[in-house]
Amino acid sequence: MNEYLDLFLNYLQVEKGLTKNTLEAYSRDLSVYLDFLAGQGRLDLDHITAMDVIEHLAGLKERGLSPRSRARALSAVKMFHRFLMVENHCPNNPAVIIEAPRSLNRLPDVLSGREVELLLDSARSADLNDVRDLAMLEVLYATGLRVSELVALKLRDVNLDAGYLLTMGKGEKERLVPLGETARLATAEYLRSARVKADRKGDCEILFISRLGDGMTRQAFWNIIKKRAAAAGIRKSISPHSLRHSFATHLLENGADLRSVQIMLGHADLSSTQIYTHVTRERLKQLHQDIHPRG
Q: In this protein, which residues make up the domain named Core-binding (CB) (predicted)?
């Protein structure tokens, strides 16, 4: 079986361009799966059944793996078997009918429009740190970037005249994302005032920088989010990813199509974006219950 695993990992690296960390995650998950199959005496691809996959997932649950970890393992198994089927190494995919653990599909934390405004208002001042933080928050909410993508943005990645930015997402894939007028103006103000004073040497290529004139870490921006949320009186636990979730949800609530949101988020698979349709459905149900006379 290990030769098939090597073929699959090579395919992911060469054809899909996945990162080293992602490849290692697939390798770990599938090595555990193949060890399980060997223990069950399943040494022939044709003999693997859906029940084998189910029992493998049950074993992961007994070992204490979270629903998210088990769903990731199932995704790896599904991709592995789909690859083997497409490459004519086996006639079918025994994992195709198996669904991920339901608790994985919990709705992501989403800020309301009012909460987003309160968060942004917490950074509206002439203080240079506030100017930077406001620009970062506006860009994050306007584009749905991952926090790792936000802090990695370089000056050359942002075209304020055209209103677009270029980011490098998962799998080393570039994508263009519209910036929006409000975020464009906030970024322009940050470049004009706060950033000029922070980059004293004028040689830092990173867009959003610390007071010391160097790039910011994800953890540093996470702390900024927590500080701003507290100042805004937002009680729920939020993170930089909360603004990404809010970006997608608010777009869909206002009529955007799922495919466009997928492109802007940088999701390789539409199924990753479909979680947000659950968000909008739940909100519609709640709205109906709150205002319908027979709700």
A: 1-85
